[in-house]
Amino acid sequence: MASEFRNRPSVTLVDRIKAVTMRQQGKTIIDRYNETNSYKDRPRSGRPRISTQKDDKNLIRLVKKNRTEPSHVLANQWKLSNGKTASSSLVRRRLLAKKLEWKFAVKKPRLSANHVKARKAFCKMVKSCPVSKWRQVLFSDEMNIEVGNRKNRIFIRRTSAEKYNQDCIIKRTKQGNSSIWIWCCMSYYGLGIHCIFDGRLN
């Protein structure tokens, strides 16, 4: 009898752990069936999610309608649309989950449809210019600087990929109340001179 036990294959520790785990899982399933008369998982504990996927999509729609709205205003608008009360922090969490962050708005010149069309035509025209041609070109421009005007710092909600979308850009004009102007130039060889002056450039 002792020789028969010695000839039996040994069970490794890993196999023993697997056997115990399978037994425990089987017992859990049997106990669940005896209590609920079903093999399905029980409902998870904890507070249920206050918003549905449809509610979240509606929130994103509200943001894209006006990207400068603060979170407490969005919470009120959200409540009017779905009847659910949500805090400002919940609104921010839902938007951050969709990568809609509170960022500075990019400022670009205010362009008309003709300006956009002309710029595209120019880019297509010079697209294939050789390097020797660009060595002969001098770029120059002027702009006004509104010193100490913090109203220019406007926040909006956007993703990183939406940085230069039309509805994420704050349009600015070259006219302003500031008396400080700067003119500078650059070429193929680097930056050129710059000049700070008062009034408009003639």
Question: What does this protein look like?
Answer:
This is Transposase Tc1-like domain-containing protein. It comes from Brachionus calyciflorus. Pfam families: HTH_Tnp_Tc3_2 (PF01498). One of its GO terms (molecular function) is DNA binding. This protein is α+β, with helices and mostly antiparallel strands. It is built from seven helices and seven strands; from the N terminus they run αααααββααβββββ. The chain folds into three domains: 11-39; 53-98; 106-197, no CATH class. Helices cover 41% and strands 20% of the residues. The strands form three sheets. It has a three-stranded antiparallel β-sheet with strand order 3-6-7, with no helix packed on it. It has a two-stranded antiparallel sheet with strand order 1-4. The chain has a two-stranded parallel ribbon with strand order 2-5. A hairpin with a 2-residue loop joins strand 6 and strand 7. Helix 3 (53-65) packs across helix 4 and helix 4 (71-82) crosses helix 5. The longest helix has 24 residues, at 13-36.
Spatial shape: elongated
Mean pLDDT: 81
Q: What's the structural domain tally?
A: 3
User: Rg, please?
Assistant: 33 Å
Structural class: alpha+beta
Q: What is the spatial order of strands in the main beta sheet?
A: 3-6-7
Order of helices and strands: HHHHHEEHHEEEEE
Distance between the termini: 113 Å
- What can be said about the biggest beta sheet? 3 strands, antiparallel
User: Helicity level, as a percent range?
Assistant: 40-55%
With helices defined by DSSP (H or I, 4 residues minimum), what is the helix count? 7
Poorly predicted regions: none
Number of strands: 7
The proportion of residues in beta strands is 15-25%
